[in-house]
What does this fold into?
Amino acid sequence: MISNFKLKPDTSWDFRQEDTKYYSHCFHNYPAMMIPQVASRLIDLYGKNAKILFDPYCGTGTSLVEANIRNINAIGTDINPLARLISKVKTTPIFLEKLHLEILNFRNCLSHYFMNIPIDFDTPDFNNILYWFSEEVITKLSVIKKFIYEIENNNIKNFFRVCFSETIRDCSWTRNGEFKLYRMTDKQIKNFSPDVFSVILNKISRNLKGLEIYQNAKKNMSSSEVYDFNSVKSIPDTIIPDNSIDLVVTSPPYGDSRTTVAYGQFSRLSNQWLDVSNASEIDKISMGGTNNKNLTKYNFKPLDNVIEDILKIDSKRAFEVNAFYHDYLKSINNISKKIKPFGYVCYVVGNRTVKSFNLPTDKITQFFFENNNFSHIYTYIRNIPNKRMPSKNSPTNITGEIGNTMLNEYIVVLQKK
Ligand SMILES: C[S@@+](CC[C@H](N)C(=O)[O-])C[C@H]1O[C@@H](n2cnc3c(N)ncnc32)[C@H](O)[C@@H]1O
It folds into this structure.
């Protein structure tokens, strides 16, 4: 039953002013990251005896880290290779002595560069590379890349790749504080001369500290597995058998990547430098990335009516909105089968506005799960004080017309019957 009871934000979920970068949570920025305190509290509330947590849109693995700290094994999946890399590194223990040695080797390699000792490296030549990086930055990144690719230990190599990825973004001509790939102005470019080697060394020492603290805190053998399956299509039984998951803690995308958060664009330069073959395709394969020929009938008025209303004004937008919820429903149907009886799902969602119509994703999530034999337990509403995501957009899509959106997040909790 969907009630119309209007809840107010519960400020105890805001975690305003709190450090959200403790443990390995400091490793890499990413759009719309979950606040670790939210994952942590949800696991404490709904995962008391949980053995296995699943995050079907794991991004950078916030809920996987928090599960492992509590001796709960975790499975994550994400279609973005950069997100998978970050999740894996954040949850993989590394033999610290070996890591320290490799960092020393890295410093030596950089000093060879400054002493003009020849280093034999290749520079990548992906499309538009000179549009995003100066030649000097490309050379220095190539030196770093060569060093990283010669590291033998895979876990250590991946640790460096994560530091490398953020360095790529920081030293490129992408504008700060944007999710989409926007180039700096010519004036900004003129005044921009990043010290590539210092940037990566700072990331390495920050991440090393985070890793040490994480490894000291995690005194158990739990682990995380990170996959690339797409829950919209199917969830392999060999990886997750039916009725096997105790708890889902996740934050799905807010809508299709074109009009909400473009995870693929955010990650593209990193993915290209890291030799990901489909680096430019990520947004297309994410939820709602491909339109359907017909509009879906959801049999849920708050969704069907809004899509009808948008259709009257802008049919393209109506089909885009439909594509997202069409995939979202399929994903929820697949995920539901994997949850144990009495297991919990906790979905952190945002209710966005399209063409001035509000899409109640919290109620939609509840309805989709209720149709899969789940009971609604509670919906917490939190203010969004510190999440990296747009708080304003243009709901009418008229340039310059700004509306508030996503000032709140809804944490929808349901239990399988
Ligand atoms: C809100 S973010 C998750 C953030 C994550 N909770 C964190 O703390 O970093 C949503 C994620 O869903 C991923 N995604 C989009 N469509 C997907 C799909 N069909 N299957 C799996 N992941 C998908 C995106 O790549 C993105 O990383």
Q: What stands out?
A: Residues 315-338 form the longest helix (24 residues). The CA atoms of residues 307 and 363 lie 15 Å apart. The longest strand covers residues 339-349.
